[in-house]
Amino acid sequence: MAATMMKANNQLARASVQGRAARVCARRAVVVRAAAASDDLGFKTMRNGIKEASAESLLTPRFYTTDFDEMEQLFSQQINPNLDMAELEAMCTEFKNDYNQRHFVRNETFKKAAEGITGETRKIFIEFLERSCTAEFSGFLLYKELGRRLKSTNPVVAEIFTLMSRDEARHAGFLNKAMSDFNLALDLGFLTKNRKYTFFKPKFIIYATYLSEKIGYWRYISIYRHLQRNPDNQLYPLFEYFENWCQDENRHGDFFTAILKVRPEFVNDWVAKLWSRFFCLSVYITMYLNDHQRSAFYESLGLNTTQFNQHVIIETNKTTERIFPAVPDVEHPEFFTKMDELVKLNNKVIEIGNSDMPAPLKALARAPYVERMIAGIFQIFIMKPIDCGSFDLEANQTQLSY
Ligand SMILES: [Fe+2]
Ligand SMILES: [Fe+2]
């Protein structure tokens, strides 16, 4: 009897231990499932903590390459005696001053703030950080290569490019570190070797980089000022760094202004006018569509995506018209009506892309919307532009008028 009772007690004790273990396991499983769910935002990883880069599309940030021999000619003082070396040397000294050397220092608030961002907001934050990091890194790669290639042709310009690549490396690194707060960083070395590079002739590289620096400036400063006015929306400390950060972008843009000023053929004929409008519109439309696809991000910061975008475009355009020979008339009442129409059509295209339709049917369903988007972009392109710039075209002079 005693033996039977002991056996029963042992069984009970075992059952109790097993039960406890099972409950602990179950609890752990719940915790693990919860952690997995919070991190399972649908992002693919290359390895633990390293995010696979998002698929490239027309609207994603690109890496650029150019004709470096032609770039050398552009910066050769023999071929281009108009180069204002005194101005470039002064700029180089400014870059060497390295005003933001001690600016990009993280603190303990980053990780904690990232942990507090959950669900859909977490997902769109990671997407924002990735896009920004890729764009900054793209600048780093291009400027670094230009710094290397121009060393013997024009050491001052080469040094400016190298110093600008220093800034962009800092910006990209800071953003990538922010991504690691969300447990998903980018492998920038892998991206360097594996991402597609888009080729632009030097003239177009200068238009495109000028614009991306200036629009970058206006984006950063507008977000910064908004969050200064609305500190409750400061979800993550990254944005507190934008005020000094955007001054780097402004200086980079000013360097390209100096380059454009001494190349009259880049800014003083009808071809230059067409390309100027084309690049302005490409940059504005890409940003407008991209940001409206991710309006939840801007809303999470308390921004109205449309107002924010329109403000950035209007301000960038005002800055750009001081050097480009023509810019779109973005303050024409129809300009943003047409841009909003593009957003609606783009939403339709995305909706079809996300549907369960078989791929060939998706392509068919998308076609009329894509066609209307192309027509819409063409309509925006043929709107009467603003003639502007720094050259007195009527007198056919190449002298600066400011
Ligand atoms: Fe930058
Ligand atoms: Fe920059």
UniProtKB/TrEMBL annotation:
MF term (GO), any: magnesium-protoporphyrin IX monomethyl ester (oxidative) cyclase activity
Pathway it works in: Porphyrin-containing compound metabolism; chlorophyll biosynthesis
Reaction catalysis annotation: Mg-protoporphyrin IX 13-monomethyl ester + 3 NADPH + 3 O2 + 2 H(+) = 3,8-divinyl protochlorophyllide a + 3 NADP(+) + 5 H2O
E.C. no: 1.14.13.81
Provenance organism: Tetradesmus obliquus
NCBIfam families: AcsF, PRK13654.1
Pfam families membership: Rubrerythrin
GO BP annotations, alphabetical order: chlorophyll biosynthetic process; photosynthesis
Source organism superkingdom: Eukaryota
The protein's required cofactors: Fe cation
Upper taxonomic lineage: Eukaryota, Viridiplantae, Chlorophyta, core chlorophytes, Chlorophyceae
HAMAP family cross-referenced by the UniProt entry: AcsF
Protein name: magnesium-protoporphyrin IX monomethyl ester (oxidative) cyclase
